[in-house]
Amino acid sequence: MSLTDPHPETRRQGEEQRVPELSVSVVIPHFNSTDTIGRALGSIAAQTLLPLEVVVVDDCSAPEERETLRALETESLPFPVRVLEQERNQGPAAARNRGWEAARGEWIAFLDSDDSWQPRRLELQARALAPATLMISTHSLVLPEDDPSPVPLPSPVPAPVRLGMGHHIVRNPHTTSSVLLRRDLPVRFTPGRFYAEDYEVWIRVAALGDVLSVPAPLAYFHKDPFGTSGLSSRIWKMIAGEQRTFLLLRRDGVLSLSQFLAAEAVMVARVARRLVLRTVRDLPLGLKSDI
User: Fold this and answer.
1) pLDDT for the residue numbered 283
2) Measured between alpha carbons, how far is 93 from 46 in angstroms, rounded to an integer?
3) Mind listing the pLDDT tens digit for each residue in 243-253?
4) For residue 80, what are the contacts with CB-CB under 8 A and spacing of at least 6?
5) What does 71-120 look like in DSSP terms, one character per residue?
6) For residue 257, what are the contacts with CB-CB under 8 A and spacing of at least 6?
7) Is the pLDDT of residue 275 over 80?
8) What pLDDT score does 205 carry?
9) What is the chain's percent helix, strand, coil content, to nearest 5?
């Protein structure tokens, strides 16, 4: 597992600027992914604004994986690493909650163990924060597994945009590995949920106050989360998860009746679009050319 700084030149360039201060705990849920967590930690070590700590929550991985993770606590990194172990596998929602509760920073930055960050992710989010900000995210990109090099940023970096409730009920505007939020927020992930559990949290935060996003690619996936066709079974599970999210939020009074109906209408339109795309995909070649 390589934990060296993969982008020293980018880091030196960032250090020439005055970097703001921010007390951040990075929370990484982990399950049998020690083959990728080195890349994730390397991208944290490359940050121009280093976190206070990294909290890795292992969700009952195999014994050899746990042994490898424990060694992280003695690695020479520019931040301390704490490894917490779940006694049984409970899913990423419970793992993130465990890390959230144990965090010492004033802000929580989430990073999945198979994702990574652009070196200026935390710095640019810190610069964009306003006194009333509760949560801030960024855009994300899918990068090849064998080419984790950071993507050059636009110059100047676009100003942050405010995302109201309307943005959130149309679609999920955040990826988990791009989110930075206040530790003291009175919300948590719903344990046991595996699809759209993050979406539920983001909407709950948006109902409490200001949510921002930096429209620049500062978080990276290293595989397409929905497969090459975009019409995999996981997509349908995500849609079912979103439906569950809207029902929970309506039950708890987070969404008004009009907001709930608007969210449902958008979902119906999205499902109809996917059905049309799947129908076109399955048509014989000759019929496709006539459409």
Assistant:
1) 62
2) 27
3) 999 999 999 99
4) 53, 54, 73
5) GGGGS--SS-EEEEE-SS---HHHHHHHHHHH--SSEEEE--TT-EE-TT
6) 250
7) no
8) 98
9) 40, 20, 40
- 160, 142, 128: which is closest to 219 by C-alpha? 142
The per-residue pLDDT for 291 is 46
**How far apart (Å, rounded) are the C-alpha atoms in residues 234 and 240?**
10
- For the residues 254-272, what does the mean pLDDT come to? 92
- Three-state DSSP at 235 gives helix
Cis previous bond, 156, omega within 30: yes
Q: Are 94 and 189 in contact (CB under 8 A)?
A: yes
Among the listed ranges 46-60, 62-76, 120-134, 244-258, which one has the minimum average pLDDT value?
62-76
Task: Give me the phi and psi of 202, to 5 degrees please.
Answer: -60, -40
Entry pTM: 0.85
Give residue 31's Cα distance to chain centre. 16
Range with lowest mean pLDDT among 87-91, 118-122, 147-151: 147-151
Q: Which tokens belong to 42?
A: 């390397």
Helices 197-206 and 233-251 cross at an angle (nearest 10°) of 40
State the pLDDT at residue 277.
73
**Distance of alpha carbon 24 from alpha carbon 170, whole angstroms:** 30
Cα–Cα distance for residue pair 186/208, rounded to 1 Å? 9
